[in-house]
Amino acid sequence: DETLSKVELEPFRIKPYLLDPDWPVIRRLNAIANEVTGMDKAPYTLGGGTYAHVLPNALVYGMSGCLPPEDFAPGYGSAHGKDESVSLDRLQRGMRIYARSMLALNEMDW
Questions:
Q1: How far apart (Å, rounded) are the C-alpha atoms in residues 94 and 69?
Q2: Is the pTM of this model over 0.85?
């Protein structure tokens, strides 16, 4: 169609931001998440853009990857979507992880 103009897209690339999983801070935060959830998960990386690559020693750390999936009705529960939901149980476990993490970070030498 003559009314449409041609659009060329260039890939948007962000340099990978990786931290050593053996860094004491990562080991401690991972241990806290595993203690609270009763799981035995290793640290992992995620795709997508976050603020972490622009802040020194920033960590992307949250409760979604260390808790079992929730069983919501279709259309509910999707992260960052319409009608995003979280159960009170998951929210409480997440808050325990965050609170213990803040205390641990405060006691560590950076």
A1: 13
A2: no
